[in-house]
């Protein structure tokens, strides 16, 4: 393996190790045993799902208990604003503007983190009449907790950006990936323990693993599938590039939006669910929280709808048919039977729209149906469709990027030796 690629992989692993270590740094003044007991009784609701995405940092009351969700929420808000307001959209496309855009995302992340940290701090005070808090001065505790969680979230955000810039793959996706994967061994042990204690039959365990395997195979099959639109080039272009490989087709994936829709949908639904968990049991807010609890049918229906929305929204951002059409025209390329320019762009839009429909349905079904099938068996969230989808998609995407890095380094070597 090329040394530069190996260094990037090692840098990625080092940053992910640092992220996992942060999950063991507790917020001062909190009794983690009380929180762990609470999460044991709430493993199937919003707290359990939030704990999974944080890599079990919530049950340890770590400084990264909020996870990467504030950053994702800020990114969602900015993506929606960039699609709504032309000035923000233009800022995002320019190189200098992109730096300013990311700076706004960071400031918005700080604001969201502070709001969530204050909410969590007061929520801890309501657990067991304040048994979870070991500091008598509430103002002092909230101040310490907010600064601790804000520091943790900023460190995670920095780690994600460093992985993206210096490592391999998308840093934010890999952080979520690492958080989910870290809970798999414990979840598997819990499943086997349930069988040994006769809480679950071996047949039920086999059904669980069968559904998981089918889900994994379905994800791999769809993620590797693509629509190839043929391209023809003028003879002059072919003669000029006869020693170079010219791609004679445009590959369009069925799932253009990748893993973003389920992550965005989960972030939007987990946030209000977590806040409403702190409401009084007899209040209307508590009842609303029960309705949008991750184990409820309404939550899965909303998840289904939000995933479809974000799939269409994000696909429209990442796939720009006009740019592709203009690039083809500049390279003297064309799609057989279509005139370059507007006709080509319209055709690509039509194909992308058709694929996005099936891609969004695939994402929505994979994220909800497996969990609904396994819901009655008391399966852990780690084995739900959303978590399996994120793990498999991020793994495939990272492998592709490593492969691309290897090919790039190989071509640079061949060019250097004059081949």
> What count of helical segments does DSSP give?
17
Rounded to the nearest angstrom, the radius of gyration is 24 Å
Quote the average pLDDT: 80
How does the helix and strand content classify structurally?
mainly alpha
* DSSP, total strands: 4
Describe the sheet with the most strands.
Answer: 2 strands, antiparallel
Structural summary, described in words:
With 419 residues, this protein is mostly helical. The chain is 71% helix and 3% strand. The chain has a two-stranded antiparallel sheet with strand order 1-3. It has a two-stranded antiparallel ribbon with strand order 2-4. α1 crosses α8 (171-182), α4 packs across α12 and α16 packs across α17 (385-416). Residues 413-419 have low confidence and may be disordered.
Write the layout of secondary structure elements.
Layout: H1 3-22, H2 32-41, H3 46-53, H4 69-84, H5 86-93, H6 95-125, H7 138-166, H8 171-182, H9 184-196, H10 202-223, E1 226-230, E2 232-233, H11 235-240, E3 249-253, H12 260-276, H13 284-291, H14 297-318, H15 321-330, E4 333-334, H16 342-374, H17 385-416
Antiparallel strand pairs: 1-3, 2-4
Helix pairs in contact: 1-7, 1-8, 4-5, 4-6, 4-12, 5-6, 6-7, 7-8, 8-17, 10-16, 10-17, 12-13, 12-14, 14-16, 15-16, 16-17
């Amino acid at each position: 393996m090329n040394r530069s690629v190996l260094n990037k992989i090692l840098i990625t692993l080092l940053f992910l190790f640092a992220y996992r270590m942060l999950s063991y740094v507790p917020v001062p003044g909190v009794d983690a045993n009380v929180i762990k007991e609470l999460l044991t009784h709430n493993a199937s609701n919003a707290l359990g799902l939030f704990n999974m995405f944080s890599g079990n940092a919530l049950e340890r009351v770590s400084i990264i208990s909020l996870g990467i969700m504030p950053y994702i929420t800020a990114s969602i808000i900015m993506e929606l604003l960039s699609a709504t307001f032309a000035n923000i959209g233009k800022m995002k496309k320019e190189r200098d503007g992109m730096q300013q855009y990311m700076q706004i995302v960071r400031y918005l992340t700080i604001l969201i983190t502070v709001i969530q940290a204050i909410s969590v701090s007061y929520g801890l005070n309501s657990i067991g009449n304040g048994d979870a808090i070991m500091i008598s001065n509430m103002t002092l505790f909230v101040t310490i907790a907010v600064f601790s969680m804000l520091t943790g979230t900023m460190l995670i955000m920095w780690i994600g950006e460093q992985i993206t810039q210096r490592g391999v793959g998308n840093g934010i996706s890999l952080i979520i990936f690492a958080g989910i994967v870290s809970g798999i061994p414990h979840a598997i042990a819990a499943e086997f323990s349930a069988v040994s204690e006769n809480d679950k039959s071996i047949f039920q365990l086999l059904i669980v693993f069968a559904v998981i395997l089918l889900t994994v195979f379905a994800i791999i099959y769809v993620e590797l599938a693509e629509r190839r639109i043929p391209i023809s080039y003028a003879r002059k272009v072919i003669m000029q590039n006869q020693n170079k490989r010219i791609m004679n087709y445009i590959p369009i994936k069925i799932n253009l939006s990748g893993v973003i829709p389920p992550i965005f949908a989960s972030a939007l639904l987990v946030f209000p669910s977590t806040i409403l968990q702190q409401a009084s049991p007899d209040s209307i807010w508590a009842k609303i929280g029960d309705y949008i609890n991750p184990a409820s049918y309404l939550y899965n229906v909303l998840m289904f709808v939000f995933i479809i929305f974000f799939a269409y929204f994000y696909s429209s951002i990442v796939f720009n048919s006009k740019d592709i059409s203009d690039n083809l025209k500049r390279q003297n390329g064309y799609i057989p039977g279509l005139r370059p320019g507007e006709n080509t762009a319209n055709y690509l839009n039509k194909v992308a729209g058709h694929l996005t429909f099936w891609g969004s349905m695939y994402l929505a079904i994979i994220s909800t149906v497996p969990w609904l099938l396994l819901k009655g068996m008391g399966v852990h969230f780690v084995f739900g469709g959303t978590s399996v989808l994120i793990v498999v998609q991020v793994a495939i995407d990272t492998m592709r990027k490593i492969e691309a890095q290897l090919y790039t380094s190989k071509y640079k070597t061949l060019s250097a030796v004059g081949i």
